[in-house]
Write a structure and sequence with these properties.
Blueprint (H helix, E strand, L loop, with lengths): L1 E4 H8 L11 H10 L7 E3 L3 E4 L5 H23 L2
Antiparallel strand pairs: 1-3, 2-3
Length: 81
């Protein structure tokens, strides 16, 4: 298991977190729950996130859909500027 500070986790995963760099501890928890990860493989403390950050095919598919949704939202915003 690896320990990252909450800010390190947010910095590392900002591109896939719904609020990016503005993500809070609650946003990180919601994100991890949405990834359908085994809860035995991660834990969120007061200031750190402990987890097994290995990549699985399920995680890759979930990440693909998150990125696809984020790109669609950005495209929609730019089309209406």
């Amino acid at each position: 298991m690896t320990f990252l500070s909450l800010q390190e986790f947010i910095q590392l995963y900002k591109i896939i977190l719904p609020k990016g760099l503005l993500s809070s501890k609650e946003d990180v928890a919601t994100f991890l729950e949405s990834m359908n990860l085994n809860k035995d493989n991660y834990q969120i403390g007061i200031t750190k996130v402990k987890g097994d950050y290995s990549i699985t095919s399920t995680n890759i598919i979930s990440l693909f859909f998150i990125l696809k949704k984020k790109l669609a939202i950005k495209k929609h915003i730019f089309e209406h500027v």
